[in-house]
Design brief:
seven-stranded antiparallel sheet, binds flavin mononucleotide, globular
Length: 210
């Protein structure tokens, strides 16, 4: 057993990027287009849950716009489109696609590759969501909530993910896209795959209505 652990240590020292090969390449998103869109009252009038999606994927511009609307940086001081308790900015948005899972890095407008392969069915319980080209997963990152006690982490993790979700709903309403927020997600499997210190709160597929 000791020999195996030693071997693993030697391999990891000699090939530090071995583990990284499991992650897909990062994707630099285009600058989000933040002008235009529907008037707010009209978007609120159209906001609705839709559960039928076509196979058509969003392009990178649409993805950049969607993620910026969800919780992108909207001020020079680094604050975001969604509020967070004590400005913790603790909601990490993961993007599940057919090709892999990516973490949205808002300040760089980047999708950081974290896991190769199609893991959507390991995140969404409902088949329609597991087939949607884009499945967002909102994670409360406890590394960013150091000053919060357990109850506060739970409470603000959930409330702050709700704001991100509503931003996504409104963006979708404005752009004629389809979405549904999901409480029914495989929280343990998501955490096992992504290995964060925190809790997966909600999922949210986004696509074109079938
Ligand atoms: C916190 C939360 C969790 C939800 N979880 C699910 C879910 O797991 N699966 C699902 O199909 N819909 C889910 N929904 C969507 C609701 O069913 C939907 O919002 C509700 O029926 C009202 O429809 P509307 O969004 O069109 O107003 C959830 C909604 C909320 C707010």
């Amino acid at each position: 057993m000791k020999k195996l652990a030693l071997l693993a240590l030697v391999v990891m020292t000699l090939f530090p990027n071995l583990n990284a090969q499991k992650a897909p390449a990062d994707i630099q998103l285009p600058d989000p287009k933040i002008e235009g869109g529907m008037p707010l009252m009209e978007a609120l009038k159209n906001r609705a849950t839709i559960r039928e999606y076509s196979d058509k994927a969003l392009d990178n511009q649409q993805l950049a716009n969607l993620l910026w609307a969800a919780c992108g940086v909207n001020r020079p001081d680094g604050k975001r489109t969604a509020p967070t308790a004590r400005n913790a900015q603790q909601i990490d948005v993961y993007v599940y696609t057919e090709k892999g899972v990516y973490l949205y890095v808002a300040e760089k407008n980047l999708l950081k590759g974290v896991a190769s392969g199609d893991h959507r069915a390991d995140a969404a319980m409902q088949p329609f969501a597991a087939k949607c080209p884009i499945l967002l997963v909102f994670v409360a990152n406890y590394d960013k909530m150091k000053g919060f006690n357990d109850e506060a982490r739970e409470f603000y993790g959930a409330t702050d993910a709700g704001y991100v979700s509503q931003n996504v709903y409104l963006y979708c309403a404005s752009e004629g896209l389809a979405t549904v927020v999901l409480g029914s997600i495989h929280r343990d499997k998501i955490k096992d795959l992504l290995g964060f210190n925190g809790k997966a709160i909600l999922g949210q597929p986004v696509g074109f209505q079938k």
